[in-house]
Amino acid sequence: MVRDKKMKPVRATSTLGPVDKLEIKRLSNAERSAYFSRREAAKVLRSVLEGDARRRAVGSIKSLVFRPSIRNKKGTFALVCQTLKHLVIIKDVLEASSILKGKWKRQAELIYIITYDILFGQAVSLVGDAEKFLMQWKDDLQLALARLLVKEKVKTVEDLVNLYQIPEVSKPRYVRVNTLKIDVDSALLELGRQNMVQKDDVVPDLLILPPATDLHNHPLVMNGSVFLQGKASSMVATALDPKPGWEVLDACSAPGNKTAHLAALMRGKGKIIACELNKERVKRLKETIKLSGASNIKVLNGDFLNINPKDPSVSTIRAILLDPSCSGSGTVSVRLDNLLPSYAAADVKDTERLNKLAAFQKKALAHALSSLGIYFKGTIWSDNSSSS
User: Fold this and answer.
1) Number of domains the chain is built from
2) Residue 346: is its pLDDT beyond 50?
3) Mean pLDDT rounded to a whole number for the chain
4) Alpha-carbon gap, residue 376 to 35, rounded angstroms
5) Residues marked as binding for S-adenosyl-L-methionine?
6) CA angle 4, 7, 8 (to 5 degrees)
7) Quick check: 64 and 48 in contact, CB under 8 A?
8) 233 and 303 assigned to the same domain
9) Of 37, 63, 283, 311, which has the maximum CB count within 10 A?
10) Residue where one domain finishes, among candidates 111, 139, 162
11) What is the pTM assigned to this prediction?
12) Do residues 201 and 336 both lie within one domain?
């Protein structure tokens, strides 16, 4: 396709102008929802990709999407996951079309999202500068995709995706009951109105539902009565078994599900010091605590390794929950880490990163054991804390 070199793309802006607002008012509810979902998905995607590049995620894909600030959680989640699933293809197509350059690089995540919608998703409404810009290049994008199919010697997009995609593993949906707000039997009854539910045989306040059960908009999830929390994560506080009235230190707290679980097991009595070094993760931690309704948690934005066990403020601590950063290999499919660029294959491990994690785990464990602690190992790699 020949283009006029003098043609200028629509100017990119981060906010809506008067004309855009008028256009949005004319959209159907579905179109308006899709427009805002793309923007929300782009923000989540940026956090995910930046965290993956640093090997230090602010949260999992699910935890980022299910934050209170995300309005259309279902649409946003689908867009983020599908864009990540097709990201290698999207980047190849954009590069072949020479589209993602100049000022559009600053909105790369939104460009990825809209490109997914143009090539693989729903029809794109011509509202928003990025949408208008990319729709001008729709034919080029489709041509680049067709050439990529030929290059890789596959016939369909599905075949192309399978060249990069790790097979998905179907696992049950686990739900931890927040007993600060509701008892297990009441939660079982309420969730059982529309789903098959059963109690877990290991964790008393954990319920099991069929794989892929969608609960993100369920009232019990929205009000913090139940948490979408995996079994391995729920076993940690259960294993520690803190008693009401204890003082407990949660050494590496964010995103806060285990911290909130501690509070529930302690029936809201006693004191929990939730320690987290990363400021962004502290925000997520506080959101989780607020949602849980726990009132006996004190958040400490600092390095657990700098805490002096002999300090009077921590001298009365009865237990330490130490669940430090790990490889995440035990929760790859649950956290959807297999969609991330860094996850090349199921049997490939970043040796340098694993060594750093193992060194930190040993250091943290040694520091915790100067008082009292518990250590939870959640990895499939033998060199990830295996000698601890």
Assistant:
1) 2
2) no
3) 79
4) 42
5) 252-258, 276, 303, 323
6) 155
7) yes
8) yes
9) 37
10) 162
11) 0.56
12) yes
